[in-house]
Amino acid sequence: MAEAHWYVVHTYSGYENKVKANIDKTIENRHLEDQILEVRVPMQEVVEMKNGAKKSVSKKMFPGYVLINMVMNDDTWYVVRNTRGVTGFVGPGSKPVPLTDMEMKPLGITKAERVEVDFDEGDTVVVTAGVWKDTIGVIQNMNHNKQSVTINVELFGRETPVEISFADVKLNQ
């Protein structure tokens, strides 16, 4: 299988979050989770002065652009290119150009090392970090590309699926 790279997609200004949501929905509907790994609208914290008071707000780093980590092929190109609000990929002509590691580093997005795990679907795990720390759950689904597992946790009296990074779980002994 080809390797995934980060690409920049140009969108109508103000449509970045809508494009992200549409692509995420299409990934789910067409089962492209193994080809389109992540869609991001890069944000940054900015301090604004309003009426003499400092206020911290989140602003888009690149208005009009969305970053997508994907395996480039005819299917994924078609899905992204034909998403409502997308005007095209960034690159010369119609050929998308992947971002280099040097270009990704200032954005705080780097290639994470692959975590080898000793558990599988159906195994019981304990969450070791994050919001769900010390929660025990049974693995319902594993996504090796995203390096995450989906477990069910009890939330408000209901079983709710939660996605957690491989690095934040361990096998329950």
Segments where pLDDT lies below 50 for 5+ residues?
Answer: none
Structural class: alpha+beta
The percentage helix is 10-25%
Number of domains: 2
Strand content: 35-45%
**CATH architectural label of the largest domain:** 2-Layer Sandwich
DSSP summary, beta strand count: 11
Q: What is the CATH class name of the largest domain?
A: Alpha Beta
Instruction: Report the average pLDDT across residues.
Output: 86
Spatial arrangement of strands, main beta sheet: 10-9-8-7-11
Q: Could you state the CATH homologous superfamily of the largest domain? A: NusG, N-terminal domain
Cα distance, first to last residue? 35 Å
Rg, Å, rounded:
19 Å
CATH topology name of the largest domain, in short, is Alpha-Beta Plaits
Name the assembly state: single chain
State the helix count: 3
Q: What is the helix/strand order?
A: EHEEEEHEHEEEEE
- Broad shape: globular
